[in-house]
Each structure stands twice: as C-alpha cells, then as structure tokens.
Design brief:
Shape: globular
Radius of gyration: 23 Å
Structural class: mainly alpha
Pfam families: HD_assoc (PF13286)
Number of strands: 4
Number of domains: 3
Helix content: 55-70%
GO molecular function: triphosphoric monoester hydrolase activity
InterPro entries: dGTPase, PHydrolase_assoc_dom
Order of helices and strands: HHHHHHEEHHHHHEHEHHHHHH
Distance between the termini: 23 Å
Keywords: Hydrolase
Protein name: Putative dNTP triphosphohydrolase, associated with nucleotidase YfbR
Strand content: under 5%
Largest sheet: 2 strands, antiparallel
C-alpha cells in the first residue's frame, strides 16, 4: 500500500466505523460525532505526517527471503487520507482556532511527524488501554511463566514502584513492613494471591487519575483530558517496559510476528496481482465499483481473522491445502 496512501491500524479503525460496517447504507456504524471523535486518536492525515525519507521497503542485501525493513516501513500514526471527509465532518462544529490547534503536529528529525492532541474521551480510552496493557498483560505473562521473579526484580525495582510501595506502607504494619517484598512474593505465589495484588495495582492506578486543562482550547471535549500523575505513571511505564522487553520482543513472539507479516504481505500481493481471479466475488465487486482502488483489497485483508488469513494463505501457497468446496 506504500503507493496507495499507506495503511495504519488506528486509521483503519476509523474507516471501519465510518464506511465498512454494514449497519447503515453509506455511513458505516452511523455513530455520533462525539463517538467518532473518541475514536480519532491521531487527528491528522498520514500524508501530512509522513517523512518522505522514510519509504516502506524490504531489507537490503543478498537474501532469498523478502524481509520487511521495519524501521523504514513503520507508518506515522494518523488517519487514512481516504477518510478526510469523515474527519472534516467530525471537526466541523469546532471554531477555526480549536481545529488548527487540535490538528497541529510536531516534526521530528529522521522520523515521521506526530500529532499533539486528543479529545477527552480518547484520553480516557488511552489511560484505560495503558493500564490494561501494563497490568493485565503482565498478569497473564506471570501466570504463563513467561516472566520470572528475577526478571521482574531487575526491570521493576523498588524505586520504580515507589508510588505503590508508599501507598502500601501508609496502610500500616498490618499490611507489611516490606511492601515491595510482599508484592513480589504475592505476584509469584498462588493465583489467588496474585489476583489480589493485581487488583491493588489497578486501584492504585485508577484512583488518582485527574483532569488536566488545556486553556488554548474553547471546546470542553478538547480543553479537558485525563492523565495519570507522574509517580503512578512511572510505575505503569516500568510494568509496560517489562512486558515489551521480556514478552513482546522475545524470539518466540517475534517468530510469530515475522510469520504473520509475511503471510499478510503475500496474501495482499497475490490478491493485487489478479483481483478478478482471487478476490471473493463480493470483495471484487466493491473493488471494481471503486475503480480498482487498492484500498478495497487492503480492507479485505485487514478484515481477516488470524484463522481466515492462515486458511487463505494455505489455499494460495500450500500445494496440499484447499478444496473447491471451501467457503470463501
């Protein structure tokens, strides 16, 4: 998609709700402006944010494998240019000053530009997402023994947990004289004890969430946002970094991610090479009605579940897989 406006996950979510859902004839899920504003996490088009020096490409050097250059191929975070009219509609009630400020960007040397603002509803969603990612992904990783006690102590030392440790200390000696040690022992003990400590983490992170005012905006949904206080945010950042380093970047996970990327690219390129033959009839009809716009092939592939992607890949590329009786 590098020559057809690109692809970005948050932008595809907006497109899905605005156009692709079948709830209405031509307005997708037919949501209100406020709902769509809450989904608009990055309110600037990809074409505005893109650094022309960073062009999606394959890894260089001799190789029989066609490997994606992840650094060059990671897109900016914004909405797809195909949804410019949708974003114009979402932002239509704003005054010119609010709209200009809301869509302002920060340019960065050697990187794509980034947006600076989001709505109140979107900031609430962000905080909830960060807590879910940092806390519950780590809970699952510990339960599955993907994270050891030694790794936890190394990457989430007591200093990183200062806000939580101090809170437990204020509970008094009935809690523990060494709250960090009690926490670690509980996390790597039995499942019931682990769940109690996880519940305490969630309460610790949610309770102090506060409203922050942005006086440059007139519209209340832009003027106000929520955030986690600095000390609590430092604790959450340490939890997220542990998940990233030990779980997400582990070879076991990266092998699956590499395979998934290869499958997505291969299926998309196959569909693009001969849409009439390879696209299901309803998807091909939409593709033809749009004048051969590759965005519609992208929509089809992006809408696949993992299971359906695997099944499609095997039908196209595995000699012994697939049947004329398979339902596409």
């Amino acid at each position: 998609m590098r020559d057809a406006e690109g692809f970005e996950g948050n932008g595809q979510t907006l497109r899905l709700l605005a156009r692709l859902e079948n709830f209405s004839a031509a307005a997708g899920a037919n949501l209100s402006r406020r709902s769509m504003l809450g989904v608009l996490k990055y309110p600037v088009a990809l074409s505005v944010l893109r650094n022309s020096e960073l062009r999606p490409q394959l890894q260089g050097g001799p190789s029989v494998l066609r490997t994606i250059d992840l650094k060059a191929s990671t897109p900016p975070k914004g909405y797809l240019d195909s949804e410019t009219d949708v974003v114009d509609w979402i932002l239509e009630p704003l005054c010119d000053a609010d709209r200009d400020a809301f869509t302002s960007i920060e340019k960065r040397e050697g990187k794509h530009a980034r947006t600076l603002h989001k709505s109140l509803d979107c900031s609430i969603m962000d905080v909830a997402d960060d807590i879910a990612y940092g806390v519950h992904d780590l809970e699952d990783a510990i339960a599955l023994r993907l994270v050891t006690e030694r790794q936890f102590r190394d990457l989430v030392p007591e200093e990183s947990c200062k806000s939580f440790v101090e809170e437990r200390r204020l509970k008094g000696p009935t809690e523990s004289n060494a709250p960090y040690e009690a926490m670690v022992d509980g996390l790597f003990g039995d499942s019931n004890t682990r769940k109690r400590w996880i519940s305490r983490w969630v309460n610790h992170l949610i309770t102090p969430v506060r409203f922050i005012e942005r006086p440059e905006f007139q519209e209340p949904l832009l003027r106000w946002r929520v955030e986690i206080p600095e000390g609590h945010a430092r604790f959450l950042k340490a939890l997220k970094e542990l998940v990233m380093q030990v779980v997400i970047r582990s070879p076991g996970v990266q092998h699956l991610e590499f395979k998934g990327q290869s499958m997505v690219v291969s299926v998309f390129e196959a569909m693009q090479s001969d849409p009439e033959r390879l696209l299901p009839r309803d998807a091909h009809a939409k593709f033809e009605a749009a004048g051969g716009d590759l965005r519609h092939i992208s929509d089809f592939v992006a809408g696949m579940t993992d299971t359906y992607l695997l099944k499609t890949y095997e039908r196209l590329f595995e000699p012994r897989m697939g049947s004329v009786f398979d339902k596409l």
